[in-house]
Amino acid sequence: MLQIEGLNTYYGDSHILRGVDVALPSATSIGLLGRNGMGKTTLIRSLMGYVRPASGRVKLDGDDVTGWAPEKMARRGDRVCAGGRGIFPNLSVRENLVMSARAGIDGKREWTFERVMTTFPRLTERLSHGGSSCRVGSSRCFRSGGR
Known about the structure:
Elements: E1 2-11, E2 14-24, H1 40-48, E3 55-60, E4 63-64, H2 70-76, H3 93-100, H4 113-119, H5 136-143
Antiparallel strand pairs: 1-2, 1-3, 3-4
């Protein structure tokens, strides 16, 4: 479960996030929508430790992770599938997927190549295409073993 309580984040004197409160059950997918400058990226950066909130709390599965370093969040198994594709355009779709495969924090590889192909069936017809041609970024996020 993700719990955000009274989160306030600044860039210098600019108060970007103002008292954000959110509670999301585990295994929930959401999208953040809003105009440029509304705080979407700042929220993600605050959750993942790239920006330290001035006040408030971030809890994941009951653990207070407020202000943890990004590498500590990654070791814990937490991932963000950001809007950018995060791919290597000079590699094929298949090569991008193979390169990103790793076990989750429990050592299991729940997102096998076959499961990704079942979840994203249109990828099968694009495996030899360049990585920039389709949804490789989303698929790679699943293959990375994150929660």
